[in-house]
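Comment on this:
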Amino acid sequence: MLVYEIMPGEKRIIAGVYHLSKVLGRHFALQDINFQLANGEFVFLVGPSGAGKSTLLRMMYMDDIPDSGQVIMGAHVSTMMKRRNIPRLRRRIGIVFQDFRLIEDRNVFENVALAMKVAGIGITEIKHEMTNILTRVGLYHKRYEFPGALSGGEQQRVAIARAVANKPAVLLADEPTGNLDPMVTRGILELLFKINSGGTAVLMATHDVELVKSFGQRIIYLQDGKIVKDKEMLFRGNLRESISNSRVDHRAKKFTEHSIGEDYDGKRGR
């Protein structure tokens, strides 16, 4: 299970991708990808649509197999992984998708509890933990609501709650704000930073370069299936203050202030 006892200040590599390549058709979807993720890191995986971000994340939770190279997630190595053990791995890392992937005929409580139940956690412990989990994502008061009654931002919060229910060491988020407006985007990022501050390493894919530049986190730039830049950036100061001073907050304010019928640049829509 991808949960480690880490001494304060200790850094440990908990995930790695080594010389990974994937060919789709006649072209490389990914070519010679190399990087490592340490405990407690928050890393943005940035690149335009088609750069290979989603393909890379699928390789990391072993939903797809590389043509060469390998992925190591905790004690799990892709080149040695037996297919029957892949579901066990996926239950022990957190995965958040752009399209939520909630079970429509189950309420918030049931969607999150199912992830814990599949991991073998007993109902008594599930009930005990659920209050804390849903409170952290701000949805305890909506625990009996069904996905169809929730906003997009609320559904994504449920998806995040489900992903962290089993206290994974790594959370993989594939464009978690891609379908959300700027105000909701800010809230989701705040939640992901909050989860990260509790010790969970986060790797978040996004196509929005400008969105992430101001946070001071490590950014891996992916273009045409290759890593073109991976520069370590250390954050100093108050993270919430950084969010408030960032383009996320600027976009959120612009979104709430613009008139009906105008786009975000203040131009009148047709």
Q: What stands out?
A: The CA atoms of residues 98 and 178 lie 6 Å apart. The radius of gyration is 19 Å. Strands lie at 13-24, 27-38, 42-46, 68-73, 76-77, 94-96, 170-174, 201-206, 218-223, 226-231. The chain has nine helices and ten strands.
